[in-house]
Specification:
CATH architecture: 3-Layer(aba) Sandwich
Strand content: 5-15%
Order of helices and strands: EHEHEHEHHEHHEHHHEEH
Structural class: alpha/beta
CATH superfamily: NAD(P)-binding Rossmann-like Domain
Shape: globular
Helix content: 40-55%
Strand order of the largest sheet: 3-2-1-4-5-6-7-8
Bound molecules: NADP nicotinamide-adenine-dinucleotide phosphate
Number of domains: 1
């Protein structure tokens, strides 16, 4: 149980299932004020009821839904200590566009969390808060990041789109940390491990064969293991207990793909993301 002076308000997206739900359970168990965000009304209400915490719904494939979510969270929580941008996944074989006209994987894993973070900026700064992005080792394995083709108009494969979005989450964490560390708002990204969750479980999902195979189930780690670094980053003191602006694996800073450390690319991505969201 945490000391009452260190009780934090922790918003976790993708908390209706898998790694996010496991992190919510652990952090609520430690006495923090956890706010769960999910897409499925039934799953989100079930975890919120189990933990006795507040919940919100949003579909990240719809920018309007993210704006509504930010409005609710912002009004109810003037101070947010931790925003865990954890919702995400890998999707279907063929490129799909969202109602906002962006490639689905890019929007759900990166652009929607980018927007949510922008809209909660004041609430995060008020708490000297931190933003934790659930990235993936896919940033190294699958990305071929092209700043001129963020929406994968020219080249799409589900793995590449996923790797690119997870690399964008690292660039975003680094740029957010660089811009606002001096006013007390920090950020990190992390890889949770290869985890047995509902990840890639949907029919037609690109890595379903890998994650659903009987052999894989023997090697996949439990969701609690996937939540471990998230819980560590959320509870410890950013900048004191661990360095910010970094990509973590197993609670330690690790090397992402070289492109993810390109400060010029991070600035460019930030500016283009703002422009992409200007008219939606
Ligand atoms: N499992 C792994 O091996 C692994 C490895 C590296 C990184 N990751 C990352 O870890 C994070 C959590 O994944 P997980 O393994 O816990 O998978 P999961 O069990 O499938 O959970 C995914 C979560 O994201 C939410 N979500 C998916 N699409 C959404 C959308 N359009 N709008 C809003 N929320 C949406 C889901 O909400 P609903 O259930 O309510 O629809 C669910 O809460 C993801 O970012 C994933 O990319 C996972």
């Amino acid at each position: 149980m945490t000391d009452s002076t260190d009780r934090r308000t922790i918003v976790i997206t993708g908390a209706s299932d898998g790694i996010g739900a496991a992190a919510a359970r652990e952090l609520a168990g430690h006495g923090h004020e956890v706010v769960v965000v999910g897409r499925s009304p039934e799953k989100t209400a079930a975890i919120a009821d189990e933990l006795g915490v507040e919940h919100h719904l949003a579909d990240f494939a719809d920018v309007g839904s993210v704006r509504r979510l930010a409005g609710e969270l912002g009004a109810q929580h003037p101070r947010i200590d931790v925003l865990a941008n954890n919702a995400g996944g890998i999707f279907a074989k063929h490129r799909e566009a969202t109602v906002d006209g962006h490639e689905l994987t890019f929007q759900v894993n990166y652009l929607a969390p980018f927007l949510l973070t922008q809209l909660l900026h004041e609430n995060l700064v008020a708490a000297h808060g931190t933003v934790i992005n659930t990235s993936s080792a896919a940033n190294k394995l699958f990305s071929r990041f092209d700043i001129d083709d963020l929406d994968a108009q020219r080249r799409y494969s589900p793995r590449r789109a996923y790797g690119n979005a997870k690399l964008a989450q690292i660039l975003f964490a680094k740029e957010l940390d660089r811009r606002y560390r001096d006013v007390g708002l920090t950020s990190t990204a992390f890889h949770p491990g290869v985890i047995a969750s509902s990840f890639s479980a949907a029919p037609g999902s690109a890595m379903r064969a890998v994650y659903a195979s009987r052999l894989a189930k023997l090697f996949l780690a439990p969701v609690e293991k996937g939540a471990d670094t998230l819980v560590f980053l959320a509870e410890k003191h950013p900048g004191i207990d661990y360095p910010t602006g970094e990509y973590f694996v197993d609670r330690k800073p690790a090397k992402p793909k070289r492109q993810a450390t390109d400060a010029g690319l991070a600035r460019d991505l930030w500016d283009r993301s703002v422009a992409m969201l200007a008219d939606v």
